[in-house]
Amino acid sequence: MDDDWLELIPDEAAEAPGRAGTWTIAVIDDDPAVHEGTRYALAGYSLDGRGLDILSAHSGQEARALLAERRDVAIVLLDVVMETDDAGLQLVDYIRRELKEETVRIILRTGQPGQAPERRVIVDYDINDYKAKTELTADKLFTSLTAALRAYQQLRRLDETRRGLEIIIDAAPMLLDHKSMQRLAEGVLTQVASLLNVDCAGILVLREDEREDGNRAPAGADGASQSGFEGGSKGGAQGGFCVLAGSGLYGGYVGRDPGWPLDPGIQPLVEQAFAARRHSFGDGLSTLYVQTASGSEIVALIDTDRPLSDTDRALITLLAGRLSVAFDNVILYERLQRANVTLEQRVVERTAELIRANRRLDMQRSDLRRANSLKTEILGTIAHDLKNPLSVILGRSEMLADLIGLDQGAAPGSDDARAAMRTQVDHIRTSATRLIDMIDSLMADAMNDALDITLRREPVDLAGLAREVCEANRPLAESKGQRLITDLAGPLQLCGDAERLREALDNLVSNAIKYSYPGGTITVRVRAEAGDYVCAVADQGPGLSPEDAGRLFGRYQRLSAKPTGGEGSTGLGLSIVKRIAELHGGRAEALSDGPGQGAVFSMRFPKEAVGVP
Question: Residues bearing 4-aspartylphosphate (predicted)?
């Protein structure tokens, strides 16, 4: 049902409860002549093709018993004064308060109107009409009775609609709460019987949704399709149809093998409902059609012991409109359950994959550590086995150059030979120097990449170490006309690796010589300062630009300044200084007042971090 409107039924289409084809009225009066006159006046009366069933009671007490037994009375023609002066009024109170009959219409008739003031009686006792017996001629009785029956008809319709809506509202949470298709189908049949207020039998048949290729979803092992309907009866699905539930004489279809086709008496009705895709109401058998948002279709066959009134049809159509939501709720719930199972399986599989990947990474990490250790060992061998012989070659080439220079006063005929020898010696020295630089670069790179560098902890005089480094670099400074000044405190003992610290200091001092202008001054200071040991190298070079500050200690970073003597640079020196300082629990720093103002590079070691007592 597309709309949620509840259509009001025209008067001529309505039916009232009671014996088939009659309106039930009760004449309550202690005068037998009134009963005879009423029956005579209403003889042949008919409204909407229905005649009258007239009941009689001659006292208030007799009327109580009659009305308690017959709850289908539409109109009460009531005398006021019977066994007592207010017997009729007391009966009105009994009808309204004890029997709680609010729809029955009461027309009060009295031969003594002065004893019961008309307005007060109508207001206080919920009386629908008040007539003196002298007023009720045949025509006036006909008019009053017809108006009262019309009012009763409308009230009964409203009461049925209200009761039906209450049932629908109460059923909605229950239907939406079902989590299986079979339980929902059983609940639907129960609610339909309650809504119609009759004993009825029913059967719910499901047709699976079709796929885009026109083939229906295959049925599962339980007889329901794999689209999620777990409630289908085993063996009850055939050709896309499945019996979900049955009640009354149709209860045997649930669990029957095969469940489809149905018996010849109802099979055509169900097929017609699927083909027409709409509700159909008959005298005893009616079909309801529901299509879900997921594309599945459901037909409910209802077998009642009476034809459905227009009010019944409107209410059951409204209920059917709400069933689509309930069925979709079950479908989505079952899909969610399957999705959760699939997701859990995928999580387990993914977790297993991650565990295996982590194991592979651990193995690769171990392999990398071994490879890194092997690389460091090989490069150490290079340093030991190649660098020392190269240093000898370099030293001997310098000695040869000196000897050639001392032999300047030899015979002139040997000048060409000496020139050739000097050229070859220069080539040897240049190549040896280049090889030494390459080995130093490889060693520095290996040290910088090593993940597990171990330090040899031993007492080191930081000031003495700085003095040795300065003396080793002094000839290079003097060759550029630079002054190398030392400002060293007394012995400053720390626990560290002497070779690593020597390498870091050598990098700072050689960098200062390399980047300072010829004729400049380089100052090396070692002192205790605020609980730290500080090794600082100040130069008079080009200083640092703002761009240099952010990349000073990075690997392969070349600063904006260039070496002043044409020396080469790998861009690793400062990164090595930083790494060695951090391995000793310290830090590397650089200060400059700006371009052209020189710079101070330093290493700062906290006493407690380097094992100093």
Answer: 79
